[in-house]
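Field: sequence (string)
Field: structure_tokens (string)

Example rows 1 and 2, in order.
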Amino acid sequence: MSDTMTNAWFHRLKAANRMLIKLNGGIEESARLASISKSQIGRCNSAGDTELLPITATIRLEAECGEPVVTRAMAELHGCALVNPKDKPVDGRCIMRDNAELQRLNGEFQVSLANASADLVVTPAEALVSLRNLEQLKRKLPDLETALTEIIASGGARTGLRVVGECE
């Protein structure tokens, strides 16, 4: 495996580790939930440290927050995607709201990437900000995919703005 791929692989997993720690309430709460020291969780959370979460901690933290963040990253690194057949659509889903949120997150990602490359040099810190924004954007995509598949399955949907109390 090339150094570039090894580095990309590592940084992808490191970003997933940080996201998982964040989803579980930060370093102290993640340490408590995973039954490992705050200093070890801190090293796993630090962009400048090479330590990654142990598999047992990863499994516990993913179960606690309900998001397979690291597992998803590992699957993606192998060209796979996770599918959970038990997932059901969330009531009250709105394609317009999901799309607006997706566009907001895309805007944040695009701005961070543009700022990072404005001087024609992208630093690791700038790349890290863009990577975090990209991760948030990727986490929103399944919501819009679900909304669209619901529309297909139901034969269509009315979208648009309505006045509160408007008669159909």
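Row 2 begins here:
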Amino acid sequence: MKDDTNYFEVNKSTWNKKVAIHAQSEMYNIDAFKKGKTSLMPYELKALGDVNGKSLLHLQCHFGQDTLSWSRMGAKCTGVDLSDEGVKLAKQLNTELQLDAEFVCCNVLETSKYISETFDIVFTSYGTIGWLPDLKPWAKMIAERLNVGGTFYIVEFHPIAWMFDYVDGQPKMTYHYSQDEVIYDEYEGTYANQDSKMVSKEYGWNHGLSEVVNSLIEAGLQIDYLNEHDESPYDVFPDLIKTEFGMYKMKNQLFPMIFELKATKM
């Protein structure tokens, strides 16, 4: 297996810088969150339903808002993230909000080295798998951490969306739909604050839907459904139009923006 350590170190450094900027951003709206507003979006709320009393592992949790939102709904949550700054803030929020979530700082692919318990639900969402060079170890880890009969759920930006380079504002089709070679990006700002002067240095990989589905099947999960949606809950691509339901669509919608997949460990 090739050594991806440097990629992860660069990404970790960038995400550590993003935490403070995102915590102040309108997008993450931490004040409203502290007052009780959920950070969860309609897709995942509908898919997972009543989580009260269930154990939930949240992969790549950033600074823990979604983890803590599930915790408020009665789930016993553990969040995992590569960024120690993210995990530090997540723990602070957990204490401040008097919740009982736990947070672990590690590379998501090494989750099983740090967490031995199994869960009713494994959850991950919005901009996660693109940071991983290979989905086979990711899927294997998910299967390891799920109880028999447990649910894995991912809601994620559609792979077609990552074929474009958005750095100059105008989407330009640049990358393969399912690209093995690493993609390096360097730009000012972040998706939550494009006016920020921080320089994001990021390594990423494109994974097509077949790779997502087949890695999970190979790991022993049964796919319950795969859905594709034309609307995004986040305004993270250029020139999106807000709908009456608070979602975002493209002016010329020629491909889906989101996919969601639910699977069960048999």
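free_text_note (row 2): The mean pLDDT is 94.
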